[in-house]
């Protein structure tokens, strides 16, 4: 399978990702996609052909292989890589939607009109939620496939010998997996890289949520300071008005006293 198209489609994601997202994307391409394409596909090859059992009973080989390998590792990883990279397309599509809205807005009101977005690629508003939900989806996909791999194959180990007693096998037969050690190494490698990607996505979610909470706190503190400054200014202005009114009242009281004094002197 050709995975080059994923690189072309996700090349623009780095423009809207954080440092954690860029590291995540590098790990996905270098340690998951390239390892999958270059080595993993060749290691597995034709699994059913290389799966040998010490019996010639018709159908026994097929049912034993289906019992121990209900889903191929290589196909399961292919689905995992497809599903884990799809959420990144949502971010690119959301930015493209913003760009289109901005273009139509300028066509309608002219080039000198006010912009709808200061930066269409900045993670604010709906784009922030799209980005965070895409990270949550990535974590869910990786966790689900890591669990499925463990549940279906009852661990990440490849035994050299497996015993099968499925019908129509006449009795318990011995079956042998080709290159079990090599497959075990690649399975553990893919699981570890999936766990690293999960950790990076969780760190990015915490970073984005923490940054948003910090911005909200600073905004609230700024608004409180502005309100406090306004209240202080209002108090000062009221105090100034009160002092002026008191001065005017004192002047009004002095006028009749002066007139009475003049009358008494006369």
Low-pLDDT parts are 257-263
CATH topology: de novo design (two linked rop proteins)
Q: CATH superfamily, please? A: Gap junction channel protein cysteine-rich domain
Which class do the helix and strand fractions yield?
Answer: mainly alpha
Radius of gyration: 36 Å
Range of strand content:
under 5%
Largest sheet data: 3 strands, antiparallel
Strand order of the largest sheet: 1-3-2
Number of domains: 1
Q: What's the pLDDT, averaged over the residues?
A: 78
* Cα-to-Cα separation, first versus last residue: 120 Å
Total strands: 3
Task: Assign the CATH architecture.
Answer: Up-down Bundle
Molecular structure report:
By secondary structure, the chain is mostly helical. The chain has one domain (4-210): Gap junction channel protein cysteine-rich domain (de novo design (two linked rop proteins), Up-down Bundle). 74% of the residues lie in helices and 4% in strands. The protein has seven helices and three strands. The chain has helices spanning 4-10, 19-44, 47-50, 60-68, 73-109, 126-153, 180-265; strands at 52-53, 161-164, 173-176. The longest helix has 86 residues, at 180-265. 17% of the residues are buried. Mean pLDDT is 78; it is low at 257-263. Belongs to the connexin family.
């Amino acid at each position: 399978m050709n995975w080059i198209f994923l690189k072309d489609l996700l090349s623009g994601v780095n423009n809207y990702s954080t440092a954690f997202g860029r590291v995540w994307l590098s790990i996905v391409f270098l340690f998951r996609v390239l390892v999958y394409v270059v080595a993993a596909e060749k290691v597995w090859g034709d699994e059913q052909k290389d799966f040998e059992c010490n019996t010639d009973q018709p159908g026994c080989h097929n049912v034993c292989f289906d019992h121990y390998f209900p889903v191929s590792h290589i196909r399961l990883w292919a689905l995992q890589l497809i599903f884990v990279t799809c959420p990144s397309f949502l971010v690119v599509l959301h930015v493209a939607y913003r760009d289109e809205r901005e273009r139509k807005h300028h066509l309608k009101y002219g080039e000198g009109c006010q912009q709808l977005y200061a930066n269409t690629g900045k993670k604010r508003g709906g784009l922030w939620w799209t980005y965070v939900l895409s990270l949550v989806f990535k974590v869910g996909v990786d966790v689900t496939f890591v669990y499925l791999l463990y549940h279906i194959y009852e661990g990440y180990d490849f035994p050299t010998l497996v015993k099968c007693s499925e019908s129509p096998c006449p009795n318990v037969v011995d079956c042998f997996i080709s290159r079990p050690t090599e497959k075990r190494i690649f399975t553990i490698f893919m699981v570890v890289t999936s766990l690293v990607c999960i950790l990076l996505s969780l760190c990015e979610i915490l970073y984005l949520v923490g940054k948003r909470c910090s911005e909200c706190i600073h905004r609230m503190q700024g608004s409180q300071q502005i309100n406090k400054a306004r209240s202080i200014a209002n108090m000062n202005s009221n105090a100034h008005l009160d002092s002026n009114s008191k001065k005017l009242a004192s002047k009004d009281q002095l006028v009749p006293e002066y007139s009475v004094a003049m009358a008494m002197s006369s």
